[in-house]
């Protein structure tokens, strides 16, 4: 099988976007092969489809049907790249995205190298607080539930071995999923604004420490805004770079959530599956 692809780098969350039309039943197998070290090698795979909504330029369907903010920004950047957007020019790209019930608008500004992307994010469906037994220790966590993905936020003082082991234990707790296609565990060091994201996708069996996670950064931003009872403007530092998160409230409720980050086009070509 030959597969046309574009490899992108949204905050170094290496994302392969497949352009070739494939049946969705093939997505898990194709994604697992493309992600492997001896193949194209990436942290995640999305598939570009025709949109049902005539207002959308395209549809992004992630490998397990989960929602992904970074991949949505990557697709927006690809649309700008295809249209040869010049440095300093701005483009708004409406997209259908798996895990999101409404169209999302990705704003793209071309730069001399890469693109600055701003994405309107879906709001969390719910915020739950629980205490989990992780590595034999009761650990308070906050769970932000989004369409298609749940993020478990764990406040840590250090990104050390014990914290990472707790994250791996949490990622495999099937009880944390309530129909979502993916589970993220966000180790968050509040005092420095740093985030280390671990993402588990049961459909493909992948458990990856990602260099960056857009929806995870959004989850932390929403969590911070709700905790503060006010709008926030945070720069979330991740291993691959910074994602800026901004929130907007109305009547004391979270009413708007955006993320902003840089996307680079790394490669395009044909992969052999």
Keywords:
273 residues; alpha+beta; Diaminopimelate Epimerase, Chain A, domain 1; 2 domains; 6-stranded mixed sheet; 4 helices
Rg over C-alpha atoms, rounded to the nearest angstrom: 18 Å
Main sheet overview: 8 strands, mixed, barrel
User: How many domain regions?
Assistant: 2
- CATH architecture group name of the largest domain: Roll
Number of DSSP helical runs: 4
Query: Order of helices and strands, N to C?
Result: EEHEEHEEEEEEHEEEHEEE
Relative helix content: 10-25%
Low-confidence stretches: none
Overall mean pLDDT stands at 94
| N→C terminal distance | 5 Å
Might you state the CATH topology name of the largest domain?
A: Diaminopimelate Epimerase, Chain A, domain 1
Give the full name of the CATH homologous superfamily of the largest domain.
Answer: Diaminopimelate Epimerase, Chain A, domain 1
Instruction: Determine the strand fraction and express it as a percent band.
Output: over 45%
